[in-house]
Design brief:
By secondary structure, this protein is α+β, with helices and mostly antiparallel strands. It has 36 helices and 20 strands. Strands 3, 8, 9, 10, 11 and 12 form a six-stranded antiparallel β-sheet that branches. A four-stranded antiparallel β-sheet has the order 4-5-6-7, with no helix packed on it. The longest helix has 17 residues, at 579-595. The radius of gyration is 28 Å and the shape is globular. The relative contact order is 0.08.
């Protein structure tokens, strides 16, 4: 299990949007629970005969599928979560001690049971029993039961690697941070809660069982491990088929999720000696099945429909800047799906089980042999291809095409985008590259020249969107052209096209509107969802006309996004044919938040919905509920303060923010929001101090520096204001607000030449802005002798 700093919501964005930006997706990552009883069999629909199916258990499956069961036993899936016993616990509980952040914890046994003495939710040392193990290699975590059905994951983990690899030791998952009991990342807090964060990927048929009335869990599962039916779905109909007389058996085998995309498929070579699938892959069932856990995603529906698109049950993260580099390489802990669907291999029909045995989780062949199953040995096992000594690390396929990043301190994971090394993009975009991953003592320019010398040119590879996404993030003059090219190119990976749409926020032109509107009809649910979200601030009448059909989209994640985007459009303003659809989609949106009501993000999203519907009292209650769950949840405090501004209650906003700042005094969003409150109260000196602190601490957000500069200018400190804006512009050279303010400041100071330079830069960002074009002409006339 792994937690992340930062906050996110399950659809709906920030409540008021003017104060703080909030991510749109949360990663429900790994999971363990402490149910004492198995979950009741849950009905599902079998595509073979539309009859209900129920979970039967791994032992029933193994009675016929002995070979698959034997491969599965001992695998990471089988040992994903286990009762803590003398055989399953790998860590040293023989009175071991571990010190981190000023806390010395003791790992010991009492009456044969593993125990830990460590800091609890009050900061004091307490003894806790470890009841479950979580994972096996390269590390093992441990779960501790708490009242109200909670299981919490210790952040002190056991390095299970061999000693000669640095293992067989205790370590902390956040080695460089001091995390006390007030921090949301403390092991007793919401970020390390098994019921929400971990359970649905470490067990089978998990039901979280959250009760808002009692603020407790009654989490259940049918099997503690990730067993057969976690992927294939409930098996009772398959058992019935197997037990039926042979002359009464149908052809569909009664499986809810047959995972048969590789059936009767072979890989051959075309005229260019390139791998080719004997028949196109017609569905994405297998990849979507793996993505349920091997993706950065948020749970939106607990009654998982096995075999349906991933977007029916989860909202998958796009190539967001905090998760991926602009060329799509992994940055944060994103798992495999978001990378793999960028790849040429996915586009050409490869599935997960082409390389991995789905039962043992091992590669189908050792080392490079798994690649050479399809790729020609004579072409690729050659210095003419890899330009390294035979048998060296640099000659391995994965060294260049699947470089690894280490997460959870000791867990290296390979990038599954299967890209060619692009050191030239390191030079241009600042992204990593496999060459310098090994040759760290050489420059990216050296690596780029070396590759160009080998091949006679800089190889471009399959992924062609890095420049566009980087430009979109920067807001540079060429961004719109580059983003439009990616969005309009159906050959580009759908996740990249969706990510390009998500970066169109700065541009509100007829061309971008046409791009986004066309994307509403895209075959990919990821693209449709991004297109819906991109229309969040469009004219309500236009939104009602073009987004309403998405309220009936076949994929739940798209419907929910449409419900959020149309939440401020009253039913009377919708075409009559879509009013019932809106009510159903809004109900689904609310149901998602109720399912995740144990998290503050869900209440933030409900507050956003209520604000759009002008139900301000309900919005206030939801934000207060979010803070009750996690007093350190900054977006709730910031948005609650801004809601009070809307309601004319600034007297309530200040104590809300100061209370949050007492927990997080260095949080720029809180300091910025407090500065705005103080400005409205005419407490100028205090306001400038708070806004200045936000600007210094939050340089990643140009808005902080811009607002601080405006405050300085309003206080008559014009030279300081200009210096601040110039500093912000060095980090964010295309920020429109900063450029506009510099133009205004210099014009006020009658510095037309300086104003002209900034006006020309701003005009280049939007050549269709007639007013800016006219201003440039005016300023040129003033500076021309």
């Amino acid at each position: 299990m792994r937690s992340h700093r930062g906050w996110s919501v399950l659809f709906g964005g920030a409540v008021l949007g003017a104060v703080v930006g909030v991510c749109v997706l949360v990663a429900a990552l790994w999971s363990p629970a402490s149910p004492s009883e198995p979950a009741p069999a849950r009905a599902a629909t079998s595509p073979s005969n539309n009859a209900p199916a129920a979970f039967v258990g791994e032992a029933v499956c193994a009675s016929c599928h002995a070979r698959e069961a034997a491969a599965w036993r001992g695998s990471d899936h089988q040992r994903a979560m286990q009762p803590a016993t003398s055989t399953t616990v790998l860590g040293d509980f023989d009175n071991a001690t571990f010190t981190h952040g000023g806390v010395t914890s003791q790992l010991f046994r009492r009456n044969g049971k593993p125990m830990v003495r460590t800091d609890g939710p009050d900061g004091a040392l307490h003894d806790y029993e470890v009841t479950h193990t979580f994972g096996v290699t390269p590390l093992q975590q441990y779960l501790v039961p708490f009242p109200r059905g909670r299981l919490q994951a210790l952040e002190i983990a056991w390095d299970s690697r061999p000693k000669d690899q640095g293992g067989q030791r205790w370590f902390h998952l956040y080695p460089d941070e001091k995390i006390d009991h007030a921090d949301p990342l403390h092991w007793t807090g919401v970020a390390e809660n098994w019921n929400y964060m971990c359970a649905d990927c470490h067990s089978t048929n998990v039901r979280k069982g959250w009760s808002a009335q009692t603020a407790s869990y009654a989490t259940t599962f049918t099997e503690m491990s990730v067993a057969c039916e976690a992927c294939h779905g409930p098996g009772s109909q398959h058992v019935a088929w197997a037990n039926a007389p042979s002359d009464r058996r149908g052809t569909a085998h009664g499986l809810v999720n047959a995972l048969d995309e590789r059936a009767n498929v072979v890989w051959t070579r075309d005229a260019r000696n390139k791998p080719v699938r004997s028949q196109p892959r017609a569905t994405e069932r297998e990849v979507d099945t793996c993505a349920r856990c091997h993706a950065r995603r948020g749970l939106i529906h607990e009654d998982v429909a096995h075999g349906q698109p991933i977007g029916d049950d989860y909202a998958v993260a796009l190539l967001d800047d905090d998760l991926y580099y602009p060329d799509g390489q992994i940055k944060d802990e994103v798992y495999e799906y978001g990378s793999f669907v960028q790849s040429r291999m996915f586009a050409h029909g490869v599935t997960c089980s082409d390389c991995h045995d789905p039962h043992s989780q091992k590669l189908r062949a050792p080392g490079d042999q798994v690649c050479l199953t399809c790729h020609a040995t004579e072409t690729y096992v050659s210095a003419k291809h890899h330009f390294h000594a035979e048998g060296s690390a640099g000659a391995r396929c994965v060294s260049c095409h699947m470089p690894a990043s280490t997460y959870m301190v000791v867990d290296p994971r390979r990038d599954h985008s299967l890209r060619v090394p692009r050191p030239d993009q390191t030079v241009a975009l600042g992204v990593p590259n496999a060459c310098n991953g090994c040759h760290a003592d050489r420059s990216p320019a050296w690596a780029a020249q070396q590759v160009a010398t080998w091949y006679g040119h800089a190889p471009s590879g399959f992924q062609q969107f890095g420049e566009a996404l980087a430009a979109g993030t920067r807001g540079s003059p060429e961004a719109l052209r580059l983003l439009a090219a990616v969005i309009g190119d159906a050959k580009q990976p759908a996740i990249a096209r969706a990510s390009a749409i998500a970066r169109l926020e700065r541009w509100r032109t007829p061309e971008t509107l046409a791009l986004v509107t066309a994307a509403l009809r895209d075959p990919s649910p990821l693209v449709r969802r991004a297109a819906v979200q991109a229309l969040e601030t469009a004219d309500p009448r236009m939104r009602a006309a073009v987004v309403a059909p998405l309220l009936d989209d076949p994929v739940r994640a798209v419907r929910i996004e449409a419900a959020s985007v149309l939440a401020d459009v009253t039913p009377e303003r919708l075409p009559s044919t879509w009013r019932a659809s809106q009510a159903r989609a809004v109900a689904e949106l609310v149901a998602v938040q109720e399912l995740n009501g144990d998290r503050p993000e869900a209440h933030l999203t409900l507050a956003a919905l209520h604000v759009k519907q002008q139900a301000f009292e309900r919005a206030e209650a939801e934000l207060q509920h979010a803070l009750a769950i996690d007093p350190g949840f900054v977006p709730a405090a910031v948005n609650l303060a801004d809601l009070y501004r809307t309601l004319g209650r600034d007297a309530d906003a200040e104590p809300t923010l100061r209370k949050a700042l007492a927990r997080a005094p260095q949080q720029p969003a809180l300091l910025h929001a407090l500065g705005l409150v103080l400005v409205r109260q005419n407490r100028t000196k205090e306001a400038i101090a708070s806004l200045g602190a936000a600007a210094r601490l939050g340089t990643d957000n140009p808005r902080n520096g811009y607002v601080y500069a405006v405050a300085l200018h309003s206080a008559g400190r014009r030279a300081e204001a200009t210096r601040e804006l110039n500093g912000v512009l060095r980090l964010h050279p295309y920020d429109r607000d900063v450029l506009a303010a510099l133009i205004a400041f210099h014009r006020e100071a009658k510095q037309s030449r300086e104003a002209l330079g900034f006006a020309e830069r701003l005009a280049a960002l939007d050549p269709q802005d007639a007013a800016m074009t006219a201003l440039v002409r005016e300023l040129r006339a003033q500076v021309t002798p």
